[in-house]
Specification:
Layout lengths: L2 H18 L6 E4 L2 E4 H15 L3 H9 L2 H13 L7 E4 L5 H11 L7 E3 L4 H4 L3 H4 L3 E3 L15 E7 L8 H11 E12 L5 H23 L2 H13 L3 H10 L9 E4 L4 E7 L2
Parallel strand pairs: 3-4, 3-6, 4-5, 6-7
Antiparallel strand pairs: 1-2, 7-9, 8-9
Bound molecules: S-adenosylmethionine.
C-alpha cells in the first residue's frame, strides 16, 4: 500500500472519530489527538503498517544510529543466562530477539525466545529458527491470555508500550507471565529534564523527524504521531510507580536514563 495514501486515510479516520466522540464516550490520546478508546488500537496498527517497510532505515535516521547502542545496552544490562527464556513483546523487526540470542550464544546454547512480532523474515534462514529457539505471535500486549502464568524469565518491550491504550494492563500482563524471580525490562522514549537539551530535543522531534519521515518514507503523518506519542507517555518516575503498582519490586528509583533521558530502561523484579 502506498504509505502516503495510508497515512492520509488514517488521519481522515481519526478526524471523523473525533467528531463522533460524545461527552460520555471513553476517550484516549492518539498522539495529540483525542479519539474513542475503542479506536486507538486500529489507528496504531495503521501507523505501524505504514512505517513497516522503512522501519529500520528510519530508526537509524531519526536516532543517528544510537537506537542500536540503546538496544545493545539493554541486553548487556540484562546479561541473560544461557537458559533464560525471553518474551519480547512489540518486537517489530526483531532487534531485541536477535541481540538476546547473540548474547546467549557467547555462552552455552540457550533457551527459546518468543518474539511478539512479524519478524519471521529476518530469522527465516537463521540457525535459531532451525534449532526451534525462536517463535512468533501477533496480538495485543494488553491481553496475553494464550500465554500461561509464570512461563518466562525475562519480558522485554522496546519502544512499544507507549503505543498501547492501557500501559498499566501491559505491565500487569508482564507480571502474570513472568516466573517468580523474573524480570520486566522496558526500553522507551522518556523525558529530557535539562531545559536546554529539552528544547534541542523538541526541535529535533517536531521539525527534523517529521521531515525525515517525509523525505525517506514519504510519510510525515506517521512520524508526527510517533513524536507526539512520546510526549503523552508518563515520565520516568510515574512509569516506575506504575510498574510497582503492578506488583514488581524496583531497585533504587527503578530506571536508568540513557542519552540525557531521551530514553529510559525501567526494570521490575517479580519476587
Ligand atoms: C516502534 S516499534 C518497536 C519495535 C522493536 N521493539 C524495536 O525496538 O525496534 C513498536 C511495535 O509495537 C507494536 N505494537 C503496537 N501496539 C501494540 C500492542 N498493543 N500490542 C503489541 N504490539 C504492539 C507495533 O506493531 C510495532 O511492531
Amino acid at each position: 500500500m502506498n504509505s502516503r495514501i495510508a497515512v492520509s486515510s488514517a488521519r481522515r479516520a481519526s478526524q471523523r472519530l473525533i467528531q463522533r466522540t460524545t461527552p460520555d464516550e471513553t476517550t484516549t490520546h492518539f498522539g495529540f489527538k483525542t479519539v474513542p478508546e475503542a479506536q486507538k488500537e486500529s489507528l496504531v496498527r495503521g501507523v505501524f503498517s505504514n512505517v513497516a517497510s522503512n522501519y529500520d532505515i528510519m530508526n537509524d535516521a531519526m536516532s543517528m544510529g544510537i537506537h542500536r547502542l540503546w538496544k545493545d545496552h539493554l541486553i548487556r544490562k540484562m546479561s541473560p543466562s544461557p537458559d533464560a527464556k525471553l518474551l519480547d513483546v512489540a518486537g517489530g523487526t526483531g532487534d531485541i530477539a536477535q541481540r538476546f540470542l547473540e548474547f546467549q550464544d557467547q555462552g552455552e546454547p540457550g533457551q527459546r525466545v518468543d518474539a511478539w512480532a512479524r519478524a519471521e523474515k529476518r530469522f527465516a534462514a537463521s540457525k535459531w529458527m532451525r534449532e526451534g529457539r525462536i517463535g512468533f505471535t501477533v496480538g495485543n500486549a494488553e491481553n496475553l491470555e494464550f500465554i500461561d502464568d509464570a512461563s518466562f524469565d525475562v519480558y522485554t518491550i522496546a519502544f512499544g508500550i507507549r503505543n498501547c491504550t492501557h500501559p498499566d494492563r501491559v505491565v500487569r500482563e508482564a507480571f502474570r507471565v513472568l516466573k517468580p524471580g523474573g524480570r520486566f525490562m522496558c526500553l522507551e522514549f522518556s523525558r529530557v529534564e535539562n531545559p536546554v537539551l529539552a528544547s534541542l530535543y523538541d526541535f529535533h522531534s517536531f521539525h527534523v523527524i517529521p521531515r525525515l519521515g517525509e523525505l525517506i518514507a514519504n510519510d510525515r503523518g506517521s512520524y508526527e504521531y510517533l513524536v507526539e506519542s512520546i510526549r503523552k507517555f508518563p515520565p520516568q518516575k510515574e512509569f516506575a510507580q506504575m510498574i510497582r503498582d503492578a506488583g514488581f519490586t524496583t531497585i533504587g528509583k527503578g530506571y536508568e536514563n540513557l542519552t540525557f533521558g531521551t530514553v529510559a530502561i525501567h526494570t521490575g523484579y517479580k519476587f
